[in-house]
Amino acid sequence: MTQVRPRTLLAFVALFFTWSCLAASIKSRGSAGLFLDLADLGIDVTKRQTGNLAGYLGAFFLGADPYVYFYLSNGNDALSFRALNKGQPVIRPTKGTTGVRDPTIVPGGGSEAGKKWYIIGTDLHIGRTTWDAAQRTGSRGIFVWESTDLINWTGERLVTVEDATAGMVWAPEAIWDPAKGQYLVHWASKFYPTSDPHHTGNPSNIKMRYAYTSDFKTFSPPQTLIDKNPTNIIDLNYLPLAPNNPNSQSFLRFMKDETRKTVFVEVSNSGLFGTWTRPGGDSAVIQSGVEGPASYLDNLNPSKVHLLLDFYGSDGYRPFESTNPGSNSGWVGSDRGNFPKNLRHGSVLPINGTVYEAIRARWGV
Ligand SMILES: *[C@@H]1O[C@H](CO)[C@@H](O)[C@H](O)[C@H]1NC(C)=O
Ligand SMILES: *[C@@H]1O[C@H](CO)[C@@H](O)[C@H](O)[C@H]1NC(C)=O
């Protein structure tokens, strides 16, 4: 396993600064055109935005172990990761079911950008319940931890976000909504009629629900975000295509069709609540037999997107990639030679050299 030495990091920083200056003279023509510009001209106009990124921090749970495990990339290789903390969890929940699945690192937005991060996740320890009970009378809360340095995670809380008619709250994630100036938090739930308070009968299909928050302590009343009735939808994951441009309206969203057990992508060039289209039509998919899509932009090639897909019946996450990520076709399996096996639904966050070194120093082996 390679380790990035400070001198190598300095060289990277210097190199990217040079690229930044070159790229600064190339004016982006706005959000909608940005992606096309890249493809048409082959110019990395976003290099100035990604220039000081030096690696990736991954947070996952492992099959039988519902805790938060950290993995750090080997330098700026988006496909090469090693376990931190000698493979032991970095966070173990003490509340609720005492198990957390689907941990996701949420980067701060607005005044918290670059200063605050949250980890949120599903309150579910499947070893202590059954899949049936977990969906009828499962937790209606989400786990939350927060940090100002991505190392010291404090303030564990379990916050109820869903109505009493909901059977569960699964795979919460959040994204800063620049139009609203708050975090858009979303999760999957199914619902029972008010005449069935013990949730013994037939539920609704599974929908994506959402609420807004500024602090991950208080949340607005939940509302429906995506309902493809009668199809069940879970595991929603947004990717801002220009994360450092607060005016960008271009987003991808990956999700799992829990009825057909497939993952597909939708595209919006008009914001989070704009018009979403599914490229290739209603039956177009990226992959079957997978769940928990976790997308991240490549630090070195801004037109490349990585997508982790959880082969839940097999060996967990496998990386896929595309340079045309707003399409359901064209995704290819990446080199898995240095990608750990049996990682389950989580997330990957690009980080700069300062953060990379601090995390390595704290949790590295
Ligand atoms: C790296 O990111 C951290 C957290 O946002 C920030 O405090 C720090 O200034 C950044 N360092 C560099 C060299 O950009
Ligand atoms: C961790 O964060 C908490 C809350 O901000 C703070 O009180 C504590 O001193 C921090 N610990 C370390 C080791 O930085």
What structural keywords apply?
four-stranded antiparallel sheet; 14% helix; Glycoside hydrolase family 43 protein; Tachylectin-2, Chain A; GH43_arabinanases; signal; single chain; mainly beta; binds 2-acetamido-2-deoxy-beta-D-glucopyranose; Glyco_hydro_beta-prop_sf; 365 residues
What does this entry look like structurally?
It is a single chain. It is built from five helices and 20 strands. The chain is mainly beta and 365 residues long. It folds into two domains: 6-43; 54-363, Tachylectin-2, Chain A (5 Propeller). The strands form five sheets. Strands 3-2-1-20 form a four-stranded antiparallel β-sheet. A four-stranded antiparallel β-sheet has the order 4-5-6-7, with no helix packed on it. One 2-acetamido-2-deoxy-beta-D-glucopyranose binds at residues 52, 114, 352, 354-355. One 2-acetamido-2-deoxy-beta-D-glucopyranose binds at residues 152, 154.
Task: Present the secondary structure layout.
Blueprint (H helix, E strand, L loop, with lengths): L5 H19 L6 H11 L5 H4 L2 E10 L2 E9 L7 E3 L16 E8 L9 E7 L7 H6 L4 E7 L6 E7 L9 E8 L4 E8 L17 E7 L9 E4 L6 E8 L10 E7 L4 E7 L18 E2 L2 E7 L7 E7 L4 E7 L9 E2 L9 E10 H11 L2
Antiparallel strand pairs: 1-2, 1-20, 2-3, 4-5, 5-6, 6-7, 8-9, 9-10, 10-11, 12-13, 13-14, 14-15, 16-17, 17-18, 18-19
The chain binds 2-acetamido-2-deoxy-beta-D-glucopyranose (2 copies).
